[in-house]
TrEMBL record:
Protein name per Swiss-Prot or TrEMBL: ROK family protein
Encoding gene (name): bglK_3
TM regions (residue ranges): none
Family of this protein: Belongs to the ROK (NagC/XylR) family.
Species, as recorded: Lederbergia lenta
UniProt-recorded Gene Ontology molecular function terms: beta-glucoside kinase activity
UniProt keyword list: Transferase
Keyword hit for Transferase: yes
Amino acid sequence: MFKRYYLCLDVGGTEIKVNILNKQKQPFYTENICYESKARLDQHSILQHFKTIITEHLQIMNENGAQLLGIGVAFPGPFDYENGISLMRGIRKYDAIYQVNLKECIRQWIIKLGFQTTTPIIFENDATSFAKGEYYYGVAKGQNKAMFITLGTGCGSTFMEDQRIVKNKYGLNEAGMVYDTPFLGGTMDECLSAKGLMEIAKANNVTNVDGYHLFVAAENRDVRAQRVFSQFGTQIAQGLRPFMLSFAPDILVFGGQISQSLKWMINSMQEQLTKSGIIPPHICASRNTSLATLTGLVQTLEKIQEC
């Protein structure tokens, strides 16, 4: 049983994943506990859902006499991470909690449960938390320059160099991300995501499927499904080309649901990079995107407590 712990949440548009980690970054639950996000409900319902989830896990640990060290929440953007305020609006998820101070909500909830008012509560971009988890403790541990790309409903990204997050450099925006970079008549967020994958599927006359069923079809040796992923790999390499040239990472790590299909994308990705005059770095997928994200939250919480 853990004596001291961090409660961490990875909040997504479809699911909320939760685990409890100790200072050694070991998870309390063998598998992350998953909840429906309820991201399209009204404000009261969303907040009550968050409260119920947080309360449930705090009570479990409280009954066992464990000490809460901090709470970390990974959230997609746009979001005011420093103040814990959601800025999402018009993107069909969490619209109802626009400008709600979630940090203060959580603080009031835990105070009523008897926890200290000084308990650290942090919010962080989910792609950034993922990158930290893999950079310090995961597949990129020991690498200096690492590029992290999450492929899901959008394209998340974080570049790390000399143990720091890179921003406003190598062609990145002020947040250190690539999502708004123009690409193929749209943006990277549109083309290097589930939407971009489905566009390629449609062009190959593969219809009425989502990313998961496309993955299952490829697993079952469906040639058309495997071709779709291969072409998507080429598209990813084309989109990342300018960043690969300027940043020259030692390792490229993919996370998110689509990264599970990397084995059908990696060859075309490497071929396209080579064709572009780039020596491909080591390319791999995260073993567990969400657990890496939660581990990254613990790293941030520990850093704050050191100050």
